[in-house]
Amino acid sequence: MLKKIALPIFILCCTALTALAQKTDTLSITLENVKYAYPVKYFPITTEGQDVRMAYMDIAPTQLANGRTVMLFHGKNFGGYYWTEVIKSLTSRGFRVVVPDQIGFGKSSKPFIHYSFHQMAAWNKALLDALGIQKASILGHSMGGMLATRFALMYPEQTEKLLLENPIGLEDYRRFIPYVTTEEQYKSELKTTAESVRKYYQSSYFTLWKPEYEELVRIAGGVTYSADFPRWAKVAAMTFTMIYEQPVVYEFINIKVPTVLFIGKEDRTIVGKGLLSPDQQALYGQYRFLGKQTAAKIPGAKIIEFDGCGHIPHIEIPTEFTVALLGSL
């Protein structure tokens, strides 16, 4: 009789523990319960009949101000939270640093709109104008590199330097990635779990997994528990389509501002990689070649390469990256 009673109690306890774990790990899709290292403000935007807001940090220099500003554009799977050490390094050298979460990402609104690099660039320009900043160096990582490129093409007079950290879009994905509709991509995004995020980060972003990277997984995976996760997944699908349909690779030759590429040579990032066979995957996303090819396309561009480093140099090799970044500024 005791065994019959004990089993349901055991099951009930396991269920309660699972629910508690889910509650602990759950994050809102606008990351209200993720603490950023610096105060977050919001820039109001009206687009397609909707009132939305863009989260951003505006951090003053901690040492004697040099009068210069650096704006940081995050990658597709991230927000301003992963720039903390870069911000500290820049502000300690006298730079003002502006760190937006792009619309659709991080703490910013997640509207159903037509996502466009041109529109995002215009919003970031409007933010700089509102802050009274006439010129800034733009550092873009991954998807942020595509956006930074578009910004420099649209606003060369406001771009002091273009700094590209393992940017995606160095290839035209339409040439070799099978087309999927936004709806098909949405169904794929809905299957995201914390564990699938971890596996992707381990296999795609870093050469060696370290415990401190778990915080990135906690944030990216935490939104999958949210009741609003379908909205997050829909926006993720929309921005996947934006990347696929709006290449910048053909316009590198038109860049007119001083440009530096920071390339982790072990990076093998391909947007839509899962749609390719292993043999096809081996043909693309080879940053040890793509970095040099891209630098050759951009007039006067410089390239700094990092051996034994993957997609996110500023996290995987922070000291080396910081030295290279400050030297380039």
Overview of the structural elements:
Residues 69-316 form the AB hydrolase-1 domain. Keywords: Hydrolase, Signal. This is Alpha/beta hydrolase fold protein. One of its GO terms (molecular function) is monoacylglycerol lipase activity. Pfam families: Abhydrolase_1. By secondary structure, the chain is of the alpha/beta class. It has a single domain, classed as 3-Layer(aba) Sandwich (Rossmann fold), CATH 3.40.50.1820. 40% of the residues lie in helices and 16% in strands. The protein has twelve helices and eight strands. The protein has helices at 2-25, 84-91, 117-130, 143-154, 182-189, 194-204, 214-222, 229-245, 278-281, 287-297, 313-316, 318-328, and strands spanning 41-47, 50-59, 69-73, 96-100, 136-141, 159-165, 259-264, 302-306. An eight-stranded mixed β-sheet has the order 1-2-4-3-5-6-7-8, sandwiched between helices. The protein is globular, with a radius of gyration of 21 Å. 41% of the residues are buried. The model is unreliable at 2-23 (pLDDT under 50).
